Amino acid sequence: MSNVQPLPVEIGDITPAWLSAALGCHVSSAHIADVNNGTCTKIRIALETDDPDIPETLMLKGGFEPHSRMMDYMHANEVRAYRDVAPVSPLRQPRTWFAGFDADARQGIVIMEDLVARGVTFLHPQEPRSPEDVAKRLEVLARHHAVTLGRSEDFAPAGRFAWADDYVDGFYHYGETILTPDVWQGFVNSARGAAASTRFHSLDWFLDTLGRLSRFSKTIPRALLHGDTHLGNLYIDIDGEPGFFDSQPHVGPVMAEVAYHVTGALDMADRRVHERDLVAHYRNALETEGHALPPLEDLMRQYAAFLAFGYAIFLVNASDFQPEAINTAYTARFSSAMLDNDTLGVLAGL
């Protein structure tokens, strides 16, 4: 496996020789069947090997975009998600043949199964799910959170997930170039800004909110989160079970992930009716795993506070990463939820 690094940073460098080293078998031929650009590049590769366990097509994910070298931390995080977290998590995720990070090249690559070939059903941000579907996925997330909830030793310097960044504080890493007045105002003036309440248009308010959420998040139950459970990163497997991919694991409050998933996955009308019951359902599921959470009223307060985090992610999410229609839909859903749950009032009391 000595030829695995350096990792390729150009699609043309994904050769049969490199794939042979990465997969640990002889790849006699390989050609690019499909390329999907985005935050990361998804590349479908048709290949012939001498290993009967490797299918005819595989998906390779990595940083092959103009912005990729600036987002190496995200590539590193996804590599860790498949290499270090997936083996101990109950989340249904794609089978992985290779996950590696090259610090010098600022590149991370994951080679995984082709879910299209397996026939799964991919979810889409513009097709909200039913409350029953969200409840089922919250049960799986509760089992995932239970693996690390309250285990501070897992995140200590010598812990197995010592590399995991703080969920809220990590936003500065993502947004250090966009949390400026001119850039922020550009997003506020866009379609997604128009879809949000003007109560949430102030950058000064949001910077103050980030500080409040950072302090608050360190006082409540924390676990290793999937980190990005919006509908575009989810699927339904052929047996009907919830599937997850594109994880960005961080350590953070479990209710931050619940608020992000519930609000992003439901139509606004359904969310208003069912969100409290869904938070209670998650609480019960986590209790089944042996973890006690605060009373429901306290959890709804946490839920209300962390809605602001999901709102900000999609308000400033570049259209290179998600189409404008998706960013707008999510911004509208989170803004609506913040109004319904008095997020401004809850944050003021933190």
Number of strands: 10
Rough outline: globular
- Helix-strand pattern, N to C? HEEEHEEHEHHHHHEEEEHHHHH
Mean pLDDT: 94
Q: What portion of residues is helical?
A: 40-55%
Assembly type of the chains comes to single chain
Number of domains: 2
CATH superfamily of the largest domain: Aminoglycoside phosphotransferase (APH), C-terminal lobe
Report the end-to-end length measured between terminal Cα atoms: 51 Å
Architecture of the largest domain, according to CATH? Alpha-Beta Complex
CATH fold call of the largest domain: Aminoglycoside 3'-phosphotransferase, Chain: A, domain 2
User: Which structural class is indicated by helix and strand composition?
Assistant: alpha+beta
Radius of gyration: 20 Å
CATH class label of the largest domain: Alpha Beta
Beta-strand level of the residues, as a percent range? 15-25%
Summarize the structure in short.
The protein is of the alpha+beta class.
Describe the structure.
The protein has 350 residues and is of the alpha+beta class. It folds into two domains: 11-118, Phosphorylase Kinase, domain 1 (2-Layer Sandwich); 121-348, Aminoglycoside 3'-phosphotransferase, Chain: A, domain 2 (Alpha-Beta Complex), CATH 3.90.1200. 43% of the residues lie in helices and 16% in strands. The protein is built from 13 helices and ten strands. It has a five-stranded antiparallel sheet with strand order 1-2-3-5-4. A three-stranded antiparallel sheet has the order 6-8-9, with helices on one face. Helix 9 packs antiparallel against helix 10 (268-288). The longest helix has 21 residues, at 268-288.
